[in-house]
Design goal:
227 residues; alpha+beta; BirA Bifunctional Protein, domain 2; 11 strands
Length: 227
């Protein structure tokens, strides 16, 4: 039977149109992925949008564009072929993943616009901790200088998204050395704990959620479009 997030993990993200937030703690990748698929298959026009916050046990995931040649060495970490967009990445403890389960039609977003909003939310989050970051049109994700600090991959089914964006807070960067991160040979990877020593993972999570929900609310989006 497919695992599903406990109702006790849910909390209001605050504000009209803001997604429901579920904090899942640390979980293996596969059951959470299967739960996202089941959630999306079972959605109706009245289903609330949700953001799932999770840390995963160590795992490599290959997206729909993933090629095994970008797995450089076998270090014993499991590899799972996923249905998200993108190439290969690593998930592990100390990395906060925000899965965005959204009805794009209801929110009025196109996929590219949603990507920019997710990246922008984490850029603003990092700025709150004194770190200057940016998105890249040619390579989705968030970067500090030339080093990647957050990876992004989405899946759209019947106008609804799942998967999302993963932020390196205090994650062990060693496993990234055994892959071409996001299929990019020699891509440097960084983490917030090296850029803002002493940062609290909980503070980062709360700040990121506030930024994500602000950017995903329809009224906030309409105000920006008019500006």
């Amino acid at each position: 039977m497919t695992w599903s997030p406990p109702a006790s993990a849910a909390a209001s993200a605050g504000g009209q149109d803001a997604p429901l937030v579920r904090r899942l703690g640390r979980r293996p990748y596969l059951p959470v992925w299967e739960a996202m698929q089941a959630f999306t298959r079972g959605r109706t026009a009245d289903s609330a949008d949700e953001i799932w916050v999770v840390e995963h046990d160590p795992v490599y995931t290959l997206g729909t564009a993933g090629r095994r040649e970008h797995l450089l060495r076998d270090n014993g970490i499991e590899t799972i072929v996923s249905d998200r967009g993108g190439q290969v990445t690593y998930h592990g403890p100390g990395q906060t993943v925000f899965y965005t389960l959204l009805d794009l039609r209801r929110r009025g977003f196109g996929v590219r616009e949603l990507v920019r909003e997710l990246e922008g939310a984490l850029v603003d989050t990092l700025a709150a901790f004194g770190v200057q970051a940016r998105g890249r049109v040619d390579a989705p994700g968030v970067y500090v200088g030339e080093a990647k600090i957050a990876s992004l991959g989405l899946r759209v089914r019947n106008g609804c998204t799942y998967h999302g964006i993963a932020l390196n807070v205090g994650v062990d960067l060693g496993p990234f050395a055994d892959i071409d991160p996001c299929g990019m040979r020699g891509l440097a990877v960084t983490r917030l704990s090296d850029l803002a020593p002493g940062v609290s993972a909980l503070d980062v999570e709360q700040t990121a959620l506030a930024q994500l929900c602000a950017r995903l609310r329809r009224p906030a989006r309409s105000t920006r479009a008019a500006a």
